[in-house]
Specification:
Number of strands: 18
Largest sheet: 7 strands, mixed
Strand content: 25-35%
Radius of gyration: 21 Å
CATH class of the largest domain: Alpha Beta
Number of helices: 11
Order of helices and strands: EEEHEEEHEEEEHHEHEHEHEHEHEHEHE
C-alpha cells in the first residue's frame, strides 16, 4: 500500500517552501521505504529551491537524513525492516567503467528509487539528490541505505549523508593528509569545519582556518584549528594576497602541505592555490556557480607542481565511511554532534534557510 505523509517541497524557483501531503508509493523490487527520524538543512537544498541546480520543479527537499527501514521491496537483500540507516546519494552500481576500474567513488550510474513520489494530484516530485527527506517517510533504492550503529543520535548521523562527509572526506580521502603535515582551510561553514575536524583526525600538526566571520574562527578552534586568520579587510589578489602572506608567515615562509577551498569562489580558490608549499596539494570542495572561471597564469600552474583536485562527496564510500565515523563519534574521537547547531520541526525549514544564509549555524536539523 502507498502512504500519504507531510513533506516539504519547492514548487517554483525562489518561492518559499511549502508543507504538503506527499504520496509515497509501494517500493519497487529493490526499493525501500525509510521512516525519517532527522534530516539536516544543507545549502544544496537551498540551491534546489532557488533553481541553481536545475529546473525540474517541484522538488521534494532534504537529503542529509537518518531513519529506520520500514518497508522493503521483494528483491531487497542489502537492508532489513528495523535497520537504522544513513541515506546516501552515491549508491554505486558495480558495473560502470569507474566501478570496474576499482574506483566506485566515481560511479557513473548510481542507483535511485524505481518509482516517483508525487503530490496528491499525481504531479511527480524530483527528490533532492535522489533522496527527498524533509518528509515522514521517503522512498529510496536499497543501495542508498547505509546501516550504522543504532546507538547514534539520528540528528548527528544524518549529517554524514552529505556536507560533513564532503568536508571530512576532502581532508582524509582526497587530500590524504599525513601525520605531521600542515593544512589551511578556506571557508568555515559546515563543510569547511568538517575539513578542520578531518585534518585533526588525520594527525595534521598545523591547521590554519581562514574566514571573514570571527565567530566561526572561534568555533574552528574547538574543531582542531591551531591558527586562525580573519580575512575580512585583507587586501591583494593571487600570490600578492595578504592572506597568502599570513599563511606563509605561519609556515616558515613556505606555505602549507595541503590547502582546502571550502567556498568555491575565485578569491578563495586563488588563495588556496598560492598558499601551498612547493608541490603542495590543493583540494576544491566548495561548489562553484555556473559562471565561475579559473584564472591563473599558466606558468604558475606549471611551476608549482603538486596536485589540484576536486572532491566529489569527499571521495567517500558510504558503506566503508559512514559506519566508521559513527563509531569514532561514539568513542569520543570525532565531534560529529558538534555540527548540530539547532533542532527544528518540519515547519521551520524556510526559516532555517534564512538562518543558514546569516551564518548563524553549522547545521539546523529537522527532527521528525
Amino acid at each position: 500500500m502507498s502512504f500519504t505523509v507531510p513533506g516539504i517541497i519547492a514548487r517554483s524557483k525562489g518561492a518559499p517552501v511549502e508543507k504538503v501531503n506527499v504520496v509515497v508509493p509501494d517500493p519497487g523490487a529493490n526499493d525501500v521505504i525509510v521512516d525519517i527520524q532527522a534530516c539536516g538543512v544543507c545549502h544544496t537544498d537551498l540551491a534546489y529551491r532557488d533553481g541553481d541546480i536545475s529546473d525540474e520543479f517541484p522538488y521534494l527537499l532534504g537529503h542529509e537524513a537518518a531513519g529506520v527501514v520500514s518497508v522493503v521491496g521483494e528483491n531487497v537483500t542489502h537492508v532489513e525492516v528495523g535497520d537504522f540507516v544513513v541515506l546516501n546519494w552515491r549508491a554505486v552500481c558495480g558495473e560502470c567503467r569507474a566501478c570496474k576500474k576499482g574506483e566506485p567513488k566515481y560511479c557513473f550510474n548510481t542507483h535511485n528509487a524505481s518509482k516517483k513520489m508525487t503530490l496528491e494530484d499525481g504531479t511527480e516530485l524530483s527528490p533532492a539528490l535522489g533522496i527527498g527527506a524533509f518528509i515522514e517517510k521517503t522512498l529510496v533504492h536499497e543501495g542508498q541505505c547505509t546501516k550504522v550503529n543504532p546507538d547514534e543520535d539520528p540528528a548527528a548521523a544524518g549529517l554524514l549523508g552529505c556536507g560533513i562527509m564532503a568536508g571530512l572526506g576532502a581532508a582524509v580521502n582526497t587530500a590524504d593528509i599525513q601525520l605531521g603535515e600542515s593544512v589551511a582551510v578556506f571557508g568555515l561553514g559546515g563543510v569547511g569545519m568538517a575539513a578542520i575536524a578531518g585534518a585533526k583526525l588525520a594527525g595534521a600538526s598545523k591547521i590554519i582556518a581562514v574566514d571573514i566571520d570571527e565567530r566561526k574562527l572561534e568555533w574552528a578552534k574547538d574543531f582542531g584549528a591551531t591558527d586562525v586568520i580573519n580575512s575580512s579587510g585583507l587586501s591583494g589578489e593571487g600570490e600578492e594576497s595578504e592572506v597568502v602572506a599570513k599563511i606563509r608567515e605561519l609556515t616558515g615562509g613556505f606555505g602549507t602541505d595541503v590547502t582546502i577551498d571550502a567556498v568555491g569562489i575565485m578569491p578563495t580558490w586563488q588563495q588556496a592555490f598560492y598558499s601551498r608549499d612547493h608541490a603542495g596539494r590543493m583540494v576544491m570542495v566548495g561548489v562553484p556557480n555556473l559562471t565561475s572561471r579559473i584564472d591563473i597564469p599558466a606558468i604558475d600552474f606549471y611551476g608549482r607542481g603538486g596536485s589540484l583536485r576536486p572532491a566529489w562527496y569527499g571521495d567517500c564510500l558510504p558503506e566503508r565511511d559512514f559506519p566508521a565515523y559513527v563509531e569514532l563519534h561514539l568513542q569520543g574521537r570525532f565531534p560529529l554532534d558538534k555540527f548540530v547547531s539547532e533542532r527544528i520541526g518540519l515547519d521551520d525549514v524556510e526559516e532555517a534557510f534564512n538562518t543558514m544564509k546569516a551564518g548563524d549555524v553549522l547545521r539546523s536539523v529537522v527532527e521528525l
